[in-house]
Every structure is written in C-alpha cells, then in structure tokens.
C-alpha cells in the first residue's frame, strides 16, 4: 500500500534551463504580524527509514550539487550522500537529489520509506503524479515515478528549509567533491551538530 502525503503550502516556481515554467500558483501575502510557524524535524516511526534530500545551485555560475541523509526511528545516522552534478538549475538539482536517494533506497532494500524535501512544488508533482511542460524536468519525474512503486510503503512530504538543514549541508558538501561520495554509519563532522539538534527536537520559528 502506497501512501502519499503533502504538508505546508509555500510559494515556489519550477524552472527549466533558467526560464520559469508557467503554471497556476497561489500568491500568499506576507504578514509579519501573524504567528510564526514552528518547524521541527520529525523522526520516522519504528521500522521506517527517513530520507531528507536537497539540491544546491550557486547563483550565476549555475553549478549544482545534491545531497541527502537517511535516519532511522531513533534519529540515528544510516547513510548520507553528496555529489556535484555540474551546471544546471535548482529544480533539476532537487529532482536529482531525490532520484539519487531513491536509487539508494532500492540498493539497500528499504521497504518503508519517508521522503522529505523543502521544494513544495516538486512534492506536489510527485505526490500528484502531474506532468510538467519542461522535458528535462519530466524526464527526472518519470524516473522517480518508476522507482516509487517498487517501495512497499512510501510517504512524501514537504518541510521548510529550517527542518531540512542536514540535507542542505550534505548538498553544500557536494560542491567540494570531484566525485560522488557516500557515508555509511559515520556522518561527516559538519553534520553532527545538526543531527543532534534534530534528534532533540529543536524547533525553529519561521515567519509566514
């Protein structure tokens, strides 16, 4: 049984080769007097594996990298990955990060998996199995949709960046790498503080 879940609306747009893809989206007026949103990374249930993934794109250079982190129900580190993917854009980087994570899920035979990223648009597309006009984006989406049905139970959710810091750090590490790298059991030292805060349930306040 597959489960797809969406959370927390956010303003975002998809880009293909640097150009915005035209599609309907809501504009949410900023009101700094509203109550802030509490953002906390959550542990998966016992028996589940949680993947947080992220893509990083360096402004005008267009150099992109990806990263992701797998943790168990105790918030213990299982595996992390990072790599540079060359020149692209933020949308492709996010999709590539998720796709690489799913490939690792398949390689390790994990059957109950929670996928979580900070791009609401991409979560909507994957969860809703929607098509997009950009051929390159759709190609990545199609590959993702081929792997997801192989997973026994799969949840995909959106989280704000404040709750996706570990994956973001892995993606930033990817910029420094000349070849793809995978960490098993022991994470890089740059991730330790973030993992500890996530495990303790540290909450961040995000203004609407």
TrEMBL record:
Pfam families: RVT_3 (PF13456). Residues 45-176 form the RNase H type-1 domain. This is RNase H type-1 domain-containing protein. CDD domains: RNase_H_like (cd06222). PANTHER family: OS05G0353850 PROTEIN (PTHR47723), REVERSE TRANSCRIPTASE-LIKE PROTEIN (PTHR47723:SF23). One of its GO terms (molecular function) is nucleic acid binding. InterPro entries: RNase_H-like, RNase_H-like_dom_plant, RNaseH-like_sf, RNaseH_domain, RNaseH_sf. Signal peptide: none annotated.
